[in-house]
Amino acid sequence: MPTVSNGSVSLYYDRAGEGEPVVFVPEAGLGGWLWGWQHAAVAGPYEAVVWDLRGTGRSDAPVGPYDLETLVADLESILADCGFRNVHLAGCGLGGAVALAAARTSSRVATLSLFGTAARGEAFDLDPLFAPPDDRDALRRSLEAGLSAEFLESQPDVVDGIVDWRADGDADRAGWEAQVAALEGFDATEWLIEVTQPTRVLHGGADELVSTDAGRELARGLPRGEFAELEGAGHLCFVERSRTVNDRLLGFLEAQTDDST
Description:
- The protein is an alpha/beta fold.
- The chain has a single domain (3-260), classed as Alpha/Beta hydrolase fold, catalytic domain (Rossmann fold, 3-Layer(aba) Sandwich), CATH 3.40.50.
- It is built from ten helices and eight strands.
- An eight-stranded mixed β-sheet has the order 1-2-4-3-5-6-7-8, sandwiched between helices.
- The longest helix is centred in the C-terminal third of the chain and has 19 residues, at 242-260.
């Protein structure tokens, strides 16, 4: 189980595959399980890295609140420990904000793929997604905030699996609140122009936690931003539309790799 320390805080991460690295940054409170569908698709042509934010799963959970700069420093510690010089970042929600801020300050970031992400903290309403890991009924109910009703009804076995993973790896209330605090006062609108990496902003058309308008606004503010909506999908669009998202993600990565050669 690879870990790295940022100060006194131990951070868990997992890496698999070979090739250019793709590092996934999870949503507030959710464990590395979140990226399982993308990890399986990416690990092979690329090296896939997933990790638990401080306060979640197998990473340490120091007393919060956390700020965005600390979470970015945690990410940088993992990139340095892996010896990565050029990485593709993918993030959702809070993880998208972390990836966005990292791209502004780190020379290691080549591209961004952002899901359910906005440029301002006030555009995030993540509370409905939280549930105590020891309350399976609450975990199941809270998925109604992150996934479309159609997906929940048509994929009961997948939903059962997600509940199992959440019970095993999600943050408790203290960890979740400490993470979400990092979005307080977050406003990237004034410095988005500094994020010059190619960026794909993907958004579920039925996202109840971050509006599609906020995703479009983010893409418009980025010098090389593109916006794509997945009609009818919820906040965790990459879970319920995994095949479509994986195709788009791999196509985006391949195009950027080709452009750099």
